[in-house]
Structure formats: structure tokens, C-alpha cells
Amino acid sequence: MNKLFVRDKSLILLALFALILGACKNPASSPSTPAKGRDANLTTLIVAAGTVQWPVTPTLDPAITNYAVSVPSGVSALVIGAGLSDSNAQIPASDISGLAADRITPLNAALTPQGITVTGLQDGSNVLRARVLAEDGSTEKTYELTINVVPSQITLAFDGTSVVEGSDLTGTISLAPIPVQDVTVSYSLSVNNNWSISTFVLAANQTGSATISAGESSASFSVPTIDNSAYDAPPPGLVVTVTGSTPSGAASGTPSATQPWVENDQTDVNILNPPSSVNEGSTALFIVRVAQTVPEAITVNYTITGLANPSDSSSLTPDSAWSTESTGSFTIPARTVTHLFRVVTVDNTEMEAFQQGFVLTFSSVSSANNYVALGTPVTATVNITDDE
After folding, report:
1. Closest CA to 263 of 185, 373, 181, 387
2. Domain end (from 134, 150, 166)
């Protein structure tokens, strides 16, 4: 019994020795202090005045430290906010430079935790620099923001690609940078192709204006046009020209733009002074007249029928023996006033017992925008003189 007890104590001591030896070989690691961050990047860069924001260029990128922004003339103060990628990094107030110290005021609660107001900006370029210091106290990046104070540029654009006679000419006047005050832009209308504007727009609508509200980038305009009853050739283009803006110095530029005019009236197509006769085997020439030029090709469809007895208009019958064609079409090129159409007769060897002839008839005319219609006359009767 005593020997067993001694043996058990020996086993216990041996186990304790093994535990102590293991602990010496694998000591428990003591807690270490986390490494401090080395991130000095920005995640946002905001330039604003009130509710108006202006985008910086280029788009924020960790590899880029130089940025620019354009703001309109008349801005008295800007809020510039910079969001940090690491919340433990900082932008010390003493490390903001480029502008006089009395023109830079740190904000307690701006658009982002790191915010300042900038005042006293001059027209042209204003350069602001800021050093971002990472949490480790040694990693840093210096960012540069060029603030360009410029008058807002005026641009002009139409809503569609053309204006149809009698409809409204609509468009948009835009400003960039977005203004911080209301800006009124004036414009006038004219017309090209030697037309008078009064043919297309009433006097009361030949000038106008559009007001772009503070914080907005654009305003629309609309000008009613006259629906007259005549085909206006050549179709004009309506020209809108910016003539000025108020208040003075808030915006610049006098752009103009031209909108093509689409007619809703038609011009006539007819046969001009057709021949009354033609010798057998020769060619009959027909002058096709377009009353006013159109800016697109015209298709004329026609039929030719034989005339068995010229004294009896009811006895018109097809007779392919005397003509090379009986039905077909031809094209009048765009902006053409007169066009020649030919009918070739056949010279046979027989002497006809009656007077031969044919009737040419224009059955229809068309153009892409339906600018043409059949006028008068569109039918011609031509006798063929037998040479046998």
C-alpha cells in the first residue's frame, strides 16, 4: 500500500515536470500594440456654397493629389470639405496654405469632419494646399486644389433636330459653373436663306429671355412659329442668338444655333408647254416643272397610253408598238426647278391608216417629307407623224 502511494506521487511529479517543460518551450505571447495607420488618402472633396456644389476634376483618385474646380463670379464664400480614408488621420489647420490665413476658417461641423470656409476669392485662379497627416505621424500627402473663379459660360441647345411649320421652337439655355444668383439670358431670332423672320415668327416673339435660378444649371425657352399657307423655298433655318445677360458679369458668351425648318405646305409639279406632235421614231421631250425648289429628291410616277383616234378621247388604249415604255417612274434631283423627261417612239415600216399618238399622265408625285403635289397640267396628248 505504501509503495503504491509512493509510485503515485512519482507519477504526479513527473506530470508537473512535463507541464513546466512545455511551458518553457512555448511561452504565452504577451499582448502587442497595433501598428498605427499609414493612410493619408482622401475619400471625398466637396466644394459648395449653400446648397450648390461644384464638381472637382479629375475624379478623386488616391494616386492624384492635384485637383481643380470652377466656381462662378460673385461667390463670396466657399465651404470646402475633405473626407479622410482613415478617421484617425488629420489635416492640421496649420498645414492649410496657399491663401491668406485670415481667409481660411476651420468649421466645427461642415459637410465632412474636415471642413473649412474660404472667403475673399479673386477672379481667376486661387490655389489652396492642405497636408494630410496619417495616424503614424510620419506618412503624409499634400493636396492642391485650384479654385477658378470665372463668369458662367452660356450654351444653347434645341430640343429636337428641326421645327415643323406652325409648331413651337423649343430649347435650353445652360450656365456652367452653376450660378449662385438668378441670371437672365436674353436672345433674338433671325432666319437664313434670305428670308424675313416675320414670315415665320410674329414680331412679339422675335426676342425673349430665360431666367436661370440660383443653384440651377439651365432654363428652357419656347417660341411659337407661324403656320402660313405657302410653300417657303428654299426652307429656311431659324437662328437663335444670345444677345446678353443680367446681372452684368455673372455670365459670358453670345452663342447662336440654327434649327432647320420643316414645311407643312406643298409645291406643284406639272408639265410645262408639252409638244403637240412628234415624228415617228423620234423622241418627245417634256419639261417637268417644280414650282419651287425642295431640298430633297422628287419621285414622279407616270403612265403612257396609245391614242387610236385623236378625235375620240374615249378610245385611249395601250399600244406598246410605238413606245419603249408604258408605265414607270423617274427622279427629279433635290433643288431642281426643271427636269427633262423623254419618250422614245418606234419607227416601224408600216403606213398607219389613222393618226397615231400617245397620252402621257403623271399619276403621282412624292418626296421624303411630302413637299410636293400634282399641279396642272399633268397630262399631255402627243400625235405621232407617220413617215411612211
Report:
1. 373
2. 150
